[in-house]
Structures are given as structure tokens and as C-alpha cells.
């Protein structure tokens, strides 16, 4: 995350606004993730949203049986503490990729007078 802050200092105001807009578009929303966790988390909806398809399918299949429902309920509680980190990591990854794209397109300035 600190690495992104250092790289963001190289961007001008227009590029920072573009970065923020793109992160909102391609990143994950914390509120959506927690709403999915709260209401449909027992079926793995929050994991589907975060792109964790394998564990989401496992959670969905487990929730179809009584024993699996108990396991999934414990898993659901643990996920309450993990969702925040997942969203932050995903958004930092998206932000890093967008900064890369902006910096690649940015012309190299030189202080040499010809």
C-alpha cells in the first residue's frame, strides 16, 4: 500500500481523479461485500463477489446439508473478519494496475535544455 502512495505522488490532479474513478469502477465495494456476507454469506455469496469461486462453491454445497450448515455457519463468522482485508487487497491491486497504465502512458519529461 505504501508503494502505491509513493507512485501516486507522481500523478497530477487529473490523473488522480481518473485513478479514483477507475478504482471505483473496477474495485470492490466494502458495503456490497458486507451486505452479501450478512444476508447470503451462508451460501458463499460474498466469496463469489470477491472472486473466490472455489471456496464459494464449497460453501454453497456444504450449506445444503445439516452438518455442512454448522460448518458453514462457523466459516461465515470467520469470514466477517476477512472480508475487510479482501476488499482492501483487491482495491490495492486494482489501483496498482491502473497506476501502472497511467505511468506507462505518461511522457517522459526531461530537464535538459537543447
TrEMBL record:
InterPro entries attached to this UniProt entry: TM2 (IPR007829), TM2D1-3-like (IPR050932)
TM helices/strands, residue ranges: 31-49, 56-78
Residues covered by the TM2 domain: 27-81
Main location group: membrane
Pfam (any one): TM2
Cellular location(s): Membrane
Record membrane topology: Multi-pass membrane protein
The UniProt record lists the keyword Plastid: no
Keywords: Membrane, Transmembrane, Transmembrane helix
Record protein name field: TM2 domain-containing membrane protein YozV
Source organism (scientific name): Paenibacillus hunanensis
Amino acid at each position: 500500500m505504501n508503494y502505491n502512495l509513493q507512485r501516486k505522488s507522481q500523478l497530477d490532479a487529473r490523473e488522480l481523479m481518473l485513478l479514483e474513478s477507475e478504482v471505483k469502477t473496477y474495485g470492490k465495494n466494502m458495503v456490497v461485500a458486507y451486505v452479501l456476507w450478512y444476508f447470503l454469506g451462508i451460501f458463499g455469496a460474498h466469496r463469489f463477489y470477491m472472486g473466490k469461486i472455489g471456496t464459494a462453491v464449497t460453501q454453497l454445497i456444504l450449506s445444503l446439508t445439516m452438518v455442512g450448515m454448522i460448518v458453514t455457519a462457523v466459516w461465515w463468522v470467520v469470514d466477517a473478519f476477512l472480508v475487510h482485508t479482501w476488499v482492501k487487497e483487491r482495491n490495492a491491486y486494482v489501483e496498482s494496475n491502473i497506476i501502472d497504465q497511467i505511468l506507462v502512458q505518461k511522457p517522459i519529461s526531461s530537464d535538459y535544455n537543447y
